[in-house]
Amino acid sequence: MPEFQGSISSKLPKVGTTIFSIMTGLANEHQALNMAQGFPDFACSPKLIELVNKNMNKGLNQYAMMPGVPLLREKIAEKTETLYSAVYHPETEVTVIPGATLGIYAAISAVVKEGDEVIILEPAYDSYLPAVELNGGRPVFAELKFPNYQVDWDEVRKLITFKTRMIIINTPQNPSGMAFSALDMEKLQKLTENSDIIVLSDEVYEHILFDGLEHQSVARFPKLAERSFIISSFGKTYHNTGWKMGYCLAPENLMREFRKIFQYMVFSVNTPIQYALAEFMEDMDEYLHLNAFYQAKRDLFQKSLKGSKWKILPCQGSYFQMLGYEKITHESDQEYARRLVRENKIAAIPPSSFYRKANDHHVLRFCFAKENDTLKQAAEILQEI
Ligand SMILES: Cc1ncc(COP(=O)(O)O)c(C=O)c1O
Fold first, then answer.
1. Does residue 267 fall inside a structural domain?
2. Are residues 197 and 125 in the same domain?
3. 188: pLDDT confidence band, cut at 50, 70 and 90?
4. How many CA atoms lie less than 13 Å away from 366 in the CB half-sphere?
5. If you average pLDDT over residues 65-78, what whole number do you get?
6. What is the CATH number for 118?
C-alpha cells in the first residue's frame, strides 16, 4: 500500500510498540519460554466454554444492552456486596466492559479535561499515561519505594494541587506484586477527603493475594468508594485474557459520565459470554480458590530458585514475581532482558518500561501464571545462570 502523503502529527509521539509485544515477539523469534506477558499458559474452565456455546446456540447473539446483560450486572453487584460489603445498584452503578484496558480509558476520558493533573504511582501499568495524555491531562508521578514498592503518602500529598483531578491506584500491583494495606486505603481516604479528586482503582488482580492477605478494594471504604471508579477483569480471574471481559463499578453520578463515553467507544459487549459469565459467577469457589491456586505457583517458583543468583523480591499478590539480578550483571534491565531471550531462551519484562524516566533497579518481572512444568523449566534455566 502506498503511504499517506499528507502530514500526520502524532497524538502520542513518544509511544512505540509496547514492551509486551516486543518481548513476546522476541520470545517467539528465539523459541524462548515466555514468562514475559501476563497471561496463563493453561486452559480456562471447560464449563465456562460450554456455557458460552450454550448461549450462542440458544441464539443470544445480538447486541446486549449498552451497560451489560442485566443478569450479569446483578451477579457482579451481589459479589461486590458479599465480599466488600458495598452496595452498587446493577442498573446505574455497574457496567460490563470489554476488558479492563477500555474501562480505564473510558473512566479517564469521562472526567479528565485539558490541564487536569492526574497522579500516577510508578512503576505503573502502561495504559494509564497515554489515556491521561490523550485527554489533555497532565500526569504527575509518585514513585513506589523500591524494593517493597510501598506508597509514600506524604510524597503523594505534596503532589496534590487545586488542579488534581484523579489519582490512579492499582492493587495488587503490576509489576511489583505489592498489595495495598487497609492503612494505605485509610491514608488515601484521608488525603482525598473534602476534595474533588476522583480515584481510579485498577483491581484486576483482586482475587490473587497471598499469605492470608485480604484484598483492600476501595469498595470497602465508603468515603473512598463514593469518589472512585473500580475496574476489574474477568480475563485475569477466569484464565481467559483473550476474551477481553471485565466490569466497572462507580457511584451513579460518575457512572453516568462513564457511560456517555463508553457508549461511543464500544456501545456494548459480547452477549453470549456475558450470559455465560453470569451463570459461572454463581460458583464463588471459581474465584475464591484463586488465592491458594496462585500462591502454590508463586511458592513453587520461589522455592525452585533457592540457591540461585537471583534475588527474590516480596510478592504479596498478582501473578508477577520480581527477581533482582545484581549478582549476575550490571547491564540495564532492557539490555539484560533481551540477552536472556537470545542466550538463555527465557523472556521476562524489564520494569523500566513502567517508568516515565526508565528507572532501572536491576530487576526483571516474571509472570508465574504458568503450568507447574513451565515454572520448573523456567527455574532450571534461571538456576544455571
Ligand atoms: C494492572 C493491569 N490493569 C489492566 C490490565 C488489562 O486488563 P484487560 O486484559 O482486562 O484489559 C492489565 C493486564 O495485564 C493489568 O496488569
1. yes
2. yes
3. very high
4. 30
5. 98
6. 3.40.640.10
pLDDT confidence of residue 14: 85
pLDDT given at position 324 = 98
The set of residues, in sequence order, having a beta carbon less than 8 Å from that of 308 and lying 6+ positions away, is 379, 382, 383, 385
Give me the domain span that covers residue 306.
19-44+288-383
Do 75 and 28 share a structural domain?
no
Neighbours of 233 (CB within 10 A): 23
CA of 1 to the centre of ligand 1 (A): 33
Show the ligand 1 pocket: residues with CB < 6 angstroms. Answer: 38, 99-101, 125, 170, 174, 202, 204, 233, 235, 241, 244, 246
Kindly give the distance from the C-alpha atom of residue 232 to the centroid of ligand 1, in angstroms, as a whole number: 9
Q: For a ligand 1 pocket test, name from 174, 203, 262, 367 the mutation site with the most ligand atoms within 8 angstroms of its C-beta.
A: 174
Task: Examine the fold and report which residue of 286, 311, 342 is the final residue of a domain before the chain moves on.
Answer: 286
342: in domain = yes
Ligand 1 atom nearest to 202, measured from its CA: 3
DSSP-derived secondary structure for 321-343: EEEE-TTT--S-HHHHHHHIIII
Average pLDDT, the chain: 97
- Asked if residue 128 is part of any domain, the answer here is yes
Give pLDDT tens digits for 268-325: 999 999 999 999 999 999 999 999 999 999 999 999 999 999 999 999 999 999 999 9
Q: How many independent structural domains does the chain possess?
A: 2
Interval between CA 192 and ligand 1 midpoint (Å): 25
